[in-house]
Write a structure and sequence with these properties.
By secondary structure, the protein is α+β, with helices and mostly antiparallel strands. The chain has 11 helices and 9 strands. Helix 7 runs parallel beside helix 10. The N and C termini lie far apart (61 Å).
Length: 206
C-alpha cells in the first residue's frame, strides 16, 4: 500500500492516522491493514510494518516507544555493547513508573523500576539508523541495574565475583570501566547490590 511506504518501520497510532487521513473511515482501514498483515499491532497504539515492506523494525526503538520514559538496560544493554556472549531475546528496560511486562507478536518487553534520582545517570542517547535514536544504558549503568534487581543474591564480594563469572563479562569492560560513574550511580541508587558491585570493581581496578 503506497501510503505506508512513507512510514518508518515503527510508528504510533497518531502517525498512522495522519498517513490515512484521506480515507473516509481510517479506523476501518487500520483493521484491514492488520488483518492483511500490512502492519502488525505490537500493543495498543504501537505498530510495525509487515514483512512485505522490507523495513526491519528495531526492538530497542520499540522498547523506548512502548512505555516511557524508559531506557534499555541490564543483559539487553550488555548484549548491545558486545560485553556478554549470549544473545538476549527479552528486551529489559528501566522506568521510574510502575513495572510493566508486554508479551507482543514481535517479542517480550520487561520494564523494571528505578528510583528517579538514579534514573538518568549513565544513560546514553544512541544512534539507531534512519535518523532514529534510542535511550540505552551505558555498560556501567546496565550492570548496576542488573545487580540492583538481584540484591538478595549479592551479600558479599564473593557473590559479586561469582555473578560476574557466570555472566562471562568481556574483559574490555574491566579495562574501560568508568569508576567515577559507578560511584555516582551507587551513591544515588542506595542498593546493597550496587554498593557491593562498585566496591568489588574498585578493588579489582586497584
Amino acid at each position: 500500500m503506497k501510503e505506508l511506504i512513507q512510514l518508518p518501520a515503527e510508528f504510533d497510532y497518531n502517525l498512522l492516522m495522519y498517513v490515512l487521513r484521506d480515507y473516509q473511515k481510517p479506523r476501518d482501514k487500520i483493521r484491514n491493514l492488520v488483518q492483511n498483515q500490512d502492519i502488525i499491532r505490537v500493543k495498543k497504539g504501537i505498530y510495525v510494518l509487515g514483512p512485505g515492506y522490507n523495513k526491519p523494525y528495531n526492538k530497542y526503538v520499540l522498547a523506548n516507544m512502548m512505555y516511557g520514559p524508559s531506557y534499555v538496560t541490564a543483559q539487553t544493554a550488555l548484549s548491545y555493547w558486545g560485553l556478554i556472549p549470549e544473545r538476549v531475546e527479552l528486551i529489559i528496560s528501566m522506568t521510574f513508573k510502575r513495572k510493566k511486562f508486554f508479551a507482543t507478536p514481535v517479542g517480550d518487553f520487561s520494564y523494571l523500576y528505578c528510583r528517579k534520582r538514579a534514573y538518568g545517570i549513565g544513560v546514553r542517547l544512541e544512534e539507531a539508523g534512519d535518523g532514529k535514536r534510542i535511550f540505552m544504558a551505558a555498560p556501567e549503568k546496565a550492570l548496576c541495574d542488573l545487580f540492583a534487581s538481584q540484591t538478595h543474591h549479592l551479600q558479599s564480594q564473593e557473590n559479586v565475583r561469582e555473578s560476574l563469572g557466570l555472566m562471562r563479562l568481556d574483559e574490555t569492560f574491566f579495562e574501560g570501566c568508568n569508576h567515577s560513574l559507578l560511584e555516582e550511580i551507587s551513591a544515588n541508587y542506595g542498593k546493597p547490590g550496587v554498593r557491593q558491585l562498585t566496591a568489588f570493581l574498585k578493588d579489582r581496578h586497584v
